[in-house]
Amino acid sequence: MLFLAQAAWLISRQAAAPAQLLPRLLFLAVGVLLGGALWWVTRRLYGNQGGYTALVLYCFSPAILRACVLPGSELLAVLGVYGGVYTSVGVAHAMQGPRRKWRPRILLLTAIFAIAALTHLVALALALLLGLALVLWIAEGRRTQVCFVLLTAVAGALVVFFACDGFSLRTFLGTSDAFSVTFSLDPARRFFFALPHVGIGLATAAAMLLYLAQRRSRYFGNTAPLLCALVLIFLATKGASGTATPWLWALPFLLTFIAGVFADAYQSPRRRLALGAAGALILFQAVVCFLSLPGLL
DSSP letter string over the chain? Predict the structure, then answer.
C-alpha cells in the first residue's frame, strides 16, 4: 500500500492527461508484479522475515518508483531478467519431479523470456546465460535435458519477438552497436553513491560482511543472487531505444541477496540485534526515499 501511495503521489505531481495516465498505470502494475515476484522468491527461499525484508526495501527504492511512473521498457526488462533466471531455476527443480509439473513452468518461462526479448535482446541473453549457469549448478543428472528446455523456451520467445515485429529483420539491420555490452565501474558507483539509495547501499555492505563472516550464509540460495547482481551491476549497454540501465536489472538480485543473508542473521543467537539493525537500515532507507520523492521526476 505504501508503494502504491508513493507512486500515486508521483503520478499526481505530473498532472498527466487521461491519455497519458493509462500507460503509467500499466507500468505501475508491472512494478507491483515485479514486487510480488521478488516477495514470492525470497519468501520461498528464506521464509517470511526474509521475504518481507526484500519487499520493504523494494517498496522504498526510488529507482523502482521512478521506473514505475515514467513509462519505459526498463521495468519490463527487470521483470524479464529476474523472472527468467528464477523461473529457470524453478524449471530445473520441477524436472526432478513428475512430468505433469513441467509444462506449466516451461510455458511460464517462455512467456518471461518473451517479455525480456521484446524489451531488450541483451536482457534475454543475460537471462538465458545466468539461468543456464545456475541450472548447470543445481540440475544434477538432468543437465542436458534442462538445457534443452531452456533453449526451447528461448526459441519460443524469439518466435514471439519476430511475430510482434512482423517477422522482419529490420531491428537488427544497421544497429550492430546498439546491443553492445561492456563492463564499467560507473553504474555501480552511480548507484551506491547516490543519496536516494544510501540505505540499500549500507544494507548491501552489511550483508556482504555477514556473508563473508558466517559460513551458514554461503550457500546456493545466497550466492546465486549475489553472482547475478555482480554481473549485472557492472554492465553498460545501449538498446534500440538508445539507453538501457543494467544496474537496475541487478537491483532485485541485490535485494534477494540482502534478504537471504539477513534472514540467516535473524536465526542466529543474536537475533534481536540483527532484527534491530535491519529495522534501523530499513527505516533509514524509508526516510531517505520519502525525502527523495520530490526530486525523482
Answer: -HHHHHHHHHHHHHT--HHHHHHHHHHHHHHHHHHHHHHHHHHHHHHHHHHHHHHHHHHT-HHHHHHHHS--SHHHHHHHHHHHHHHHHHHHHHTTS-GGGHHHHHHHHHHHHHHHHHH-HHHHHHHHHHHHHHHHHH-TT-HHHHHHHHHHHHHHHHHHHHHHTTT--TTTTT-TTTT-EEE-SHHHHHHHTSGGGHHHHHHHHHHHHHHHH-GGG-SHHHHHHHHHHHHHHTEEE--TTS---HHHHHHHHHHHHHHHHHHHHHTSTTHHHHHHHHHHHHHHHHHHHHHHGGG--
